[in-house]
Amino acid sequence: MNRLRYSVNLSYEIQDPTGDFLLIVEAAKTARQSVVSERLTLTPPVDAARYTDPLCNRLLRIRANKGPLAIRYEAVVDIDHRLDDGMSLTEVPVAELPFDVLSYLAPSRYCESDRMMEFAMREFGGMRPGYWRVYAIREWVRNHVRFLSRSTNERTSAIDTIVERTGVCRDFSHLMIAICRALSIPARMSSSVDYGADPAMGAPDFHAVVEVFLSGGWYLLDPSGVSIPTGLLRIGTGRDAADIPFAAIFGKVESKRPFIEIQPIADPAAGIGLPLATTSAISTW
Amino acid sequence: MNRLRYSVNLSYEIQDPTGDFLLIVEAAKTARQSVVSERLTLTPPVDAARYTDPLCNRLLRIRANKGPLAIRYEAVVDIDHRLDDGMSLTEVPVAELPFDVLSYLAPSRYCESDRMMEFAMREFGGMRPGYWRVYAIREWVRNHVRFLSRSTNERTSAIDTIVERTGVCRDFSHLMIAICRALSIPARMSSSVDYGADPAMGAPDFHAVVEVFLSGGWYLLDPSGVSIPTGLLRIGTGRDAADIPFAAIFGKVESKRPFIEIQPIADPAAGIGLPLATTSAISTW
Amino acid sequence: MNRLRYSVNLSYEIQDPTGDFLLIVEAAKTARQSVVSERLTLTPPVDAARYTDPLCNRLLRIRANKGPLAIRYEAVVDIDHRLDDGMSLTEVPVAELPFDVLSYLAPSRYCESDRMMEFAMREFGGMRPGYWRVYAIREWVRNHVRFLSRSTNERTSAIDTIVERTGVCRDFSHLMIAICRALSIPARMSSSVDYGADPAMGAPDFHAVVEVFLSGGWYLLDPSGVSIPTGLLRIGTGRDAADIPFAAIFGKVESKRPFIEIQPIADPAAGIGLPLATTSAISTW
Amino acid sequence: MNRLRYSVNLSYEIQDPTGDFLLIVEAAKTARQSVVSERLTLTPPVDAARYTDPLCNRLLRIRANKGPLAIRYEAVVDIDHRLDDGMSLTEVPVAELPFDVLSYLAPSRYCESDRMMEFAMREFGGMRPGYWRVYAIREWVRNHVRFLSRSTNERTSAIDTIVERTGVCRDFSHLMIAICRALSIPARMSSSVDYGADPAMGAPDFHAVVEVFLSGGWYLLDPSGVSIPTGLLRIGTGRDAADIPFAAIFGKVESKRPFIEIQPIADPAAGIGLPLATTSAISTW
To answer: In this structure, what CATH number is given to the domain that contains residue D175?
Structure first.
């Protein structure tokens, strides 16, 4: 088990009489992730409506008046990913997928899998289905796209990335998701906070990774290869980035870049260690 | 109230040892649409798994063996759309939208609303919010796009349509949905069977239309302008066409074009009339 | 040397009072291709203005009145491609390229080389420059794109093809041209008539191939791999298909598909043989 | 007549053993623009090869060694645009266009006119042909696109701009060019240095504007509306920005933003005045 202390500070300056915010920044509560303690502070104090959707996304809706708005969330979170042997994981035929997983086969805003069928079949169609095919897709994306900050923007989709071959974690993930879906492997995006990111990547940040459905469960892979996946604290889960923006803002608002901190809390006596790299498949639900 | 007799025949030739099908062709059962009688016939007889999702889409999952597969569905369906006065309908601020409606503000595969913000604000931002603004969007789309069969394909999205200005009902709908979302008006697609289509459009076919969320409910508009909306029999409901293909096919399969029939059954004594054009807003749920 | 008899029949029905046509269908006259005899017949007889541009494209401009217009061109053409040893051909540094070749480094309508820099460098940047690198690009395109009639249209560009991986000769050529330019290798399109096309491709048709500039000259490669390049009769030369449409039509005109015939005329006594496959580099100017 | 003093400073740091540069920064010499004096200074002194193409673009080709490279060009330039009455200018039918103007009807990298036919015909097809239709296109672009620095990049094309409706001068120009070509009006891009730019636009910069072919000559329009067109000093002329980059760089080179100065030199005694706004059509050749 791993324990992480996470905090995020968001700062806004609302310029209209009121501004509306939909935020997904709180730690998700799932079978493998529990919140030990948490606190949300809004300055000035305003009401926040809360909603947790079926994917465990914890949506905060806030209406605030003209002027500054600061949002601070801090939490101590336990994560306990199960590690499975990739060799044992199989792709699930469409005929046997749970019905609520079928929607992760369809193309979405940033994952135009419908346009990548021929490519996916040519490149990966001949491989033996299973975790190692999925891992081969992850490796392909990691090896054919260059991590390049600010080379893309919030409109960039998998189509752009397969052409231009540069991007950030979100672009790597969208491309990997699109390829999986083109092969009829359900895939979706998880946004997380990344402990253990390559320091060359700079300050901690929200980090987008991929989940694929194999052998009845969702498994996590990081096609950008910059994180230690066992140290990922889950925030949101969705079909792609369009489903889980950390902040959707309505009205004229100036935003500062979010400030995020994350630290592991090791307590060997309690069986709590540091997140470590693993070659196992990481089961996230 | 209106009563419609609807049937669809699908014909496939499966070339792999097995083929998998996800079909959404049965009449939805909603508060405003009820199924009087129905029958599904599969030839050869094969098992079909059924699932009705939260949007009332009735998914059929079929695995069939090599060879021909014929699917026939026929039903008698009552629809009873409520007609409201458009003048009374208002847009709902983001701060007051039901949480499960928020996802219809996000961009999706065929409705890249995130790229149309400036256009939408310039063209419609100054109009008074409400049904008539939505109707103005419908009129704009109808007047700026030409209905042209076979000018587009299943990869065509709202971006393509705003550039090329030709398309079929699905393209009209994707563009209207994208514009609405860019203005923070929740919008989605309904696939239906169209009684009353302009005979110039040829044989009855699946018909894509738009639903927008106003004053707490969903209202139906047809931006292609070829249907009598009160005569639309609902099949599917989703964020866009990616969510509700009438047939998603996995494996090597030859398809024939679906053959659809639809007829009104008038029974004045029972208060059952013919679908009529209306200038009222049509509430669909 | 090879001798080919070529004819093309174009049929139009002009529906406006007049229709304007810009045609590039006549055999080009170059250092390696000479016209033994030719005849152009317009029915009804109308005036045709002629213009031969610096790339030897023979433009016909015709204004015709309402009604049918038939255009027949037939020619006997000698082609005498020089065969060079690919091993001896080198890429020319930008600093040494002829000035009038520089424009073939720039992106064009259907060859968005500016978006493929990273891809081209990753895939081909480490190879030794020269004919064999260009040949490797040709092989990559041939092996990663599927020839599929009617899978694309006249709006399809190299970007689409690298995503969707299907197309016809023109799409193969645009993709190869874009990759070459991304590596600073001048490349352009030649439209031709193809003797020796794989019969599976059907009737003779206009065929798009690629020319690259190496060692001071232009060399021809066919990335779709369906032709015998020594049997290609040159019609047009340009940056991409936008420069050399066989017919640009202005006004409301109904077109029939062009009907093309091409046959080799062998005359061994005169040293005239049949076009043969070759592994040599084919110098076209 | 107007006289302008223009200078540009370019600063590079070459990181490979050598770097190659293709520059188009010198004042064009045309029938309406003459160079009174000019000086090019390269530091360190390196050879520059020169080439003036048929469109009067003055290409400089430079190969420099590792280390810093500074390029300074300064000139005094007289411009004498002829002002014509727009009412007298007509569109030229395709059948009567000079042959070397026909290429400005074709789509190009950043001006995908082939995808905008329906839009152009709907919006402008019913207007009376001539200068005022062209002016209406200019007004449409200016009124439907927002000038927004850094909202676009060097990959942005007319398709993107008609969707996203933001951009800089180059984007405005590409969109206007595409619309003109879709209506069979020859159009191309001129890059210039802008005296008289709205000071809100910041320091002087290269400025992209449009030329259209009417009544036998080329006329200049600025769809971004930020310049005084009579004060534009011509640098380059081409089908779109792909033809006339002010600097194309080959090799690993760090670039600073070019520093440009431009000032009018008034000398009333010699008949040399300040550039003034005009409602006349500006003939540029």
So the answer is: 3.10.620.30
State yes or no: pLDDT of A197 exceeds 70: no
> Could you tell me the two tokens for D70?
């500074």
> Given CB atoms, is A165 within the 8 Å cutoff of chain C?
yes
Q: Which long-range CB contacts under 8 A does C266-269 form with residues at least 24 apart? A: C266/C3, C267/C3
Contacts of A102 in chain B (CB under 8 A): 22, 59
What is the per-residue pLDDT across D119-129, written as a single tens digit (0 to 9) for each? 999 999 999 99
Where residue C201 falls among pLDDT bands split at 50, 70, 90?
low
Q: How far apart are the C-alpha atoms of B90 and C87, rounded to whole Å?
A: 74
Binding-face residues of B in 98-117 toward D, CB within 8 A:
115-116
Residue B152 lies in a domain: yes
Based on the fold, state whether residues A201 and A76 are members of the same structural domain.
no
**pTM for the whole thing?**
0.96
> Residue B285 and residue B220: Cα distance in Å, rounded?
10
Same domain, B226 and B133: yes
Cβ-nearest to C118 among A118, A159, A166: A166
Question: Cα A103 to the chain's mean position, in Å?
Answer: 18
* pLDDT tens profile D85-96: 999 999 999 999
Query: Does the pLDDT of residue B198 top 60, yes or no?
Result: no
Chain B hits for A103, Cβ within 8 Å: 243
For residue A105, the chain B residues in CB contact (below 8 A) are 248
Q: Does D168 touch chain B (CB under 8 A)?
A: no
Cβ of B116 and D164 within 8 Å?
yes
Q: Assess whether C125 and C114 both reside in one domain.
A: yes
Q: Are residues D192 and D140 in the same domain?
A: yes
Minimum distance, in Å, between the CA of residue A196 and any CA atom of chain B: 31
In a domain, A113, yes or no: yes
Does residue A8 sit in the same domain as residue A73?
A: yes
Q: Both C60 and C133 in a single domain?
A: no
D126 and D228 both lie in a single domain: yes
D34/B contact by beta carbon, under 8 A: no
Tell me the shortest Cα–Cα distance from D270 to chain B, in angstroms. 48
Cβ neighbours of B102 in A, within 8 Å = 22, 59
* Cα–Cα distance for residue pair C269/D167, rounded to 1 Å: 66
ipTM of the complex: 0.95
Contacts of B103 in chain A (CB under 8 A): 243
C-alpha pair distances (Å), D213 with each of B13, B232, C146, D188: 57, 51, 42, 9
What would the DSSP string read from start to end of C155-201?
Answer: T--HHHHHHH-EE-HHHHHHHHHHHHHHTT--EEEEEEEETT--GGG
Inter-chain touch D248–C105, beta carbons under 8 Å: yes
| Among chain A residues, CA nearest to B93 | A20
Q: Which domain holds residue B19?
A: 2-80+244-267
* Interface check C221 vs A, CB under 8 A: no
CB of A164 within 8 Å of any CB in chain C? yes
Are residues B95 and B212 both part of a single domain? Answer: yes
Q: What total of structural domains would you count in chain C?
A: 2
D172 Cβ partners below 8 Å, 6+ apart? D141, D142, D145, D147, D161, D208, D223, D224
Q: Considering CB atoms only, which of A53, A114, A250 is closest to B154?
A: A114
Instruction: Output the domain CATH number for residue A8.
Output: 2.60.40.2250
The answer to whether position C284 is within a domain reads no
Does any domain span residue A273? no
B93 interfacial to chain A (CB closer than 8 Å): yes
DSSP character string of B220-284: EE-TT--S-GGGEEEEEEESSGGG--SEEEESSEEEPPPEEEEEE--BGGGTBB-----SSEEE-
Check C94 against D51: CB less than 8 A apart. Answer: no
pLDDT over 60 at B145, yes or no? yes
Residue C166 distance to chain A (closest CA, Å): 7
